[in-house]
Design brief:
The chain has 225 residues and is an alpha+beta fold. It contains 8 helices and 6 strands. β3 and β4 form a beta hairpin.
Length: 225
């Protein structure tokens, strides 16, 4: 079905599922409770994870809405030990520079998390997923195509990726070395892509621990009017 005067082609919505109100609330609360178990982990096992699991999680991420449906993201999945070592070395160099000059207020905020410049998990975890934002697209003729709401779109896709990894039974860590331009070089990405973060994922190491944290209650994060 073509919308008159727009050139857009529409089709009937056949994928929506509606549930009775009581079931809706039960499903939503079960989903929230499951996600409440999600924790950022820094101690990973080197146990292998089937590639198909990661592929399915990336397919879930790819369902995210995006500006003009241009899907301005690209995920580079790294398993090669040599590449992981190069990424770790560059990331640790960036982190060491950060910790040497970061404002004390920032260091104080990080202190409860127990983080420092050492990132051994970048080599231990079976998968590093480098998230890139495509600042603009490329046409078949090599020209530029404007992308809209790039960071918002990439942020939503990454959030869905984290939820999918958790749902699959894996743990993850979002790592944002600053600066992170080295990822473009190490992973040989084109100029229209900008690195946003590394998603480290796999199984937790035996005996893994996490900081004792509490999330804000609903009343602190939402207002109903």
């Amino acid at each position: 079905m073509r919308e008159p005067g727009t050139g857009a082609v529409f089709e009937p919505l056949t994928t929506h599922r509606e549930y009775p109100p009581a079931e809706m609330e039960e499903r939503s609360r079960d989903f929230a409770a499951d996600l409440a178990r999600r924790r950022t982990v820094r101690q990973f096992s080197d146990r292998p994870v089937p590639r198909g699991v990661i592929e399915a999680c990336l397919e879930a991420a790819n369902t995210a809405p995006s500006g003009a449906h241009l899907q301005p993201w690209h995920f580079v999945v790294v398993t090669d030990p040599g590449l992981k070592r190069r990424i770790r070395e560059a990331a640790e160099a960036a982190e060491q520079a950060f910790y040497a000059q970061a404002p004390q207020e920032w260091l104080d905020a990080l202190a409860p998390l127990g983080t420092d410049a050492h990132k051994p998990y970048l080599e231990t975890a079976p998968y590093l997923i480098a998230v890139f934002a495509q600042r603009y697209g490329l046409t078949a003729g090599g020209g530029r195509r404007t992308h809209y709401y790039v960071m918002e779109s990439v942020g939503i896709a990454t959030g869905l990726l984290l939820a999918a990894l958790h749902h699959a039974g894996l743990v993850s860590l979002t790592h944002t070395p600053n600066p992170m331009g080295f990822l473009s070089k190490v992973l040989d990405r084109p100029p229209n892509e900008r690195p946003v973060m590394l998603v480290v994922t796999g199984y937790p190491a035996p005996g893994a621990v996490v900081p004792r944290l509490r999330r804000k209650p609903l009343a602190a994060i939402a207002t109903f009017r």
